[in-house]
Amino acid sequence: MKTGEEMTREEMPGEEVTGEAMAGPSDVLDLDSLLSADELELRQKVRDFTEQRIKPDIAGWYEDAVFPLELAPELGELGVLGMHLEGYGCPGRSAVEYGLAAMELEAGDSGIRTFVSVQGSLAMTAIHTWGSEEQKEEWLPRMAAGEVIGCFALTEPTAGSDPAAMATVAQRDGSGDDAGWVLNGAKRWIGLASAAGVMVVWAMTDDGVRGFLVPAGTPGVTATPIKQKLSMRASIQCDVAFDGVRLGPEALLPGGFGLRGPFTCLNEARYGIAWGAMGAARDSYEAALAYSQDRLQFGKPLAGYQLTQEKLVNMLVEIQKGTLLALHLGRLKDAGTIRPEQISLAKLNNVREAIAVAREARTILGGNGITGDYSPLRHAANLESVRTYEGTDEVHTLILGRHITGLGAFH
Asked: Is 104 in the active site?
């Protein structure tokens, strides 16, 4: 038997890589074969938008800490705002199609996907699910078109993972059917609040947690963008204060009593995150792969070294697994059988693995990887925020722990 040293190149197993074998280096499992023609077409449409409208400018937006508000109507025209919702000008696409869109947008930047998530999965879902017919007709068509930006004000300075402890209060103002509300309190990390035409605000009432619609310009509302962020720089997050804000009876979302109201919306957002994180991971991997094939070290491309190939393979394995998980979740959602603990599993796993992929990709880029010319470190920084919002690792671990043991360990 010949030793490895004695083998010719033709005899060395797997050493020669043909052009055919190199096709689809991001999809070794051929997961695309699991998608319909309509799903592939929608994905390509959003991928083209990301390549043309996001990637050329994202490094500058990120460095300057600017969210490009001009993209809002373009994203509306693209059909990704509230795209899983039916009627009222909403696109009415499937859960899988929404997931694919989220993945492609986050391949551009988490901040752009987050806008779509806040607009559609949070604010629009709250109105669509818990709002009156008048509220739906007033807001949803314009939000779907990107003409009006919405925000979702749940998190507070002292109540992030424990929304039941919220201190923002809405008290009745008067009596009878014409009684309004007076809103007092504070919220923090509220995406796009300073640019929002309408805020969905969750507050404690005598009847428990309720949702309210607060239009832009309402006296007593102050939204202040949070500065000096090290993550999600191409996005806007705000501190919001409510000081004696008077609202009419029409401001109350008639449905959604208790924490079921906001949690329904949070699960929609968490679902999109499971897909989006894989977009950031894939873009990081592809940046590292391309760099490793072009960068020469010691006389040959970095991609030709065993350590580099091990890194690339480990990244790809997690991306393929995470994408398959997200797709399975989407099929469950479209079938109407998805459960909250399944969403928690996917959000926990996919964001955690996406961060690891982005960090590993940065190592292949060497010193060049810390510049804005390459995406992995930007993705890694953004994913630290994604890992925290819509439920931290710890919260999703406890959700899963409660499910598998039957014992709640939150307290």
From this structure: no
